[in-house]
């Protein structure tokens, strides 16, 4: 490391650690809150660096990821297997993997795909509205067969089909594309090396019939349904080919199905539901109004009763809200209506932690402690109650998360995850943000007016016992 850089780091590091602890705390608070606000103010961001790639954000409010009940979308429940035979664990695992591949191609953000019990699957796809297309892509088996069509007349109205033995299992990959000359939508595919030679011989054989009165064709069948049939303009020796489609969406759908292959077991739709985006938007607006109204009432109570302490507590609650929402965005957390309820509940718990602290400070001021001593002792004595209460809530949230994961109850799981994040953040804001803001405020001239920090009348001090800046600092 260059000497100049070492000197610069030593100077900057030494400067930071030499300043008073309360100003270090203020710098850290500013950085944390500033990063949270910046994350929320930018809807989309992509941070790249050595060993990490962080891409976050959506088009929804504050760039947060909203769940099905808030953003609208499709809700499907499937029954797997035959009515008289339950699927095995390995079959269900393969089915879930296959469905995840298909749903990923639909372009939905943060889909929820879970197993319900032993033989059912829950699929939730936010942002989608075409339920028939979703059902078609998820449920169809997509078994591809490549057929050699022997034409008996020039227009190939009469023909004989011969099985070539080539199927979708011989494909290495497939993708939707457009022809560079005609701009027609098509599906490009590549065969595995084991099937490339057979495909090359097949296309060469069909190509050799182009100069006859009845040129043969190459036909593609998807689940015994003919997708396309056409002649071969040149033999394909590299093991790659293309299937021309009518529309771009058909090309994308076929590529998705070919890429994911055949479903290992049949599935049947039990429940289908489309959640209207406007209904989800209305739920979100109602939740925001309820949250803001509750927040305003809490602010009014805290400032009216606890005065300056309440004002700082209200400020810490604003910081808490920004930090929690930023954590939701960075992780990311899919925010559902149940998650919004858990977030509002965690805000109440954050207020409760501040109230425990303010009550302890009030008791210390009542017995004649200086403001700075009352803050220090109040936090120490309130911490055990805050810790025990929050740990109890975390245990309950952990049980809810386990329950929701076991029974695929996404609403319960979302509630638990949001509550855990909110509780952990409330502990941080109570023991770090609120405490340091109070200490910084008490280091100003306001330490002479402890009544600004408590709603109760305080005992009169003897003239010789009046706190001074010197004794106040020593009490810290």
Describe this structure in words.
The protein has 476 residues and is α+β, with helices and mostly antiparallel strands. It has 3 domains: 20-47 and 277-475, Multidrug efflux transporter AcrB transmembrane fold, CATH 1.20.1640; 73-141 and 265-275, Alpha-Beta Plaits; 144-260, Gyrase A, domain 2 (2-Layer Sandwich). It is built from 13 helices and 15 strands. It has helices at 3-18, 21-41, 68-71, 89-104, 131-139, 193-207, 248-260, 277-306, 308-330, 337-366, 371-406, 410-442, 469-475; strands spanning 45-49, 52-56, 65-66, 73-80, 112-116, 120-126, 144-151, 159-167, 171-178, 185-191, 217-222, 225-230, 240-244, 267-275, 334-335. The strands form 5 sheets. It has a 4-stranded antiparallel beta sheet with strand order 5-6-4-14. It has a 4-stranded antiparallel beta sheet with strand order 8-7-11-12, covered by helices on one side. A hairpin with a 7-residue loop joins strand 7 and strand 8. The model is unreliable at 4-9, 11-18 and 463-476 (pLDDT under 50).
